[in-house]
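Annotated sample (chain length 193).
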Amino acid sequence: MAADPLTDRFIGALARRRATGEAVAGADCADACVAQLREWGAQRALVPDDLWLAELRVPETMAAAGFDVVMWPSDRGWRELLGLDHAPPTCAVTVPVRAVAERGTLVIASSPTHGRSLDAVGWWHLAVLADDRIDGTLAEALRATYPPGAAAASGVSLVSGPSRTSDVEKITTYGAHGALAEHVVVVRSSRSG
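Output written by the structure step:
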């Protein structure tokens, strides 16, 4: 498949934000997700009940590889999902509605099957993104997400890399308010081939 300039820009921008990413064919997506969970040492994956992820066989492949797959919405309590009640190392999986090539930013919208804080509850954040949802700028991404007259989601997150904060002495801490690391699996579409 030919390279896609927006995908290449997006993955380059991820690196500048201390995140990682890769572009794969749809048939290779589930294996790429499993490989990333293994690299991080995750034992559990919190996965939205998303039809596209099911078509890509992501939850099924994760479960077959021995990961505890918890589908969202879940009847498990927030304390357990946040790792406060002896939860195993958990990776949260998201399906962003758009992404911004310029900054490596993911636009994540809540829905009944995609919880508001999925990107923040796991030790790691794994996003699965269709390459035809990558826009050049944030303005383009927001116009595509919310055209005039469209209803907005009850919660939208703009995620640009792993969670980090700095104190007054400018000492950076990762994972203070969310994931320690972020990886994006970009699934190539007909646009790039």
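Annotation: The longest strand covers residues 124-130.
Annotation: The longest helix spans residues 5-16.
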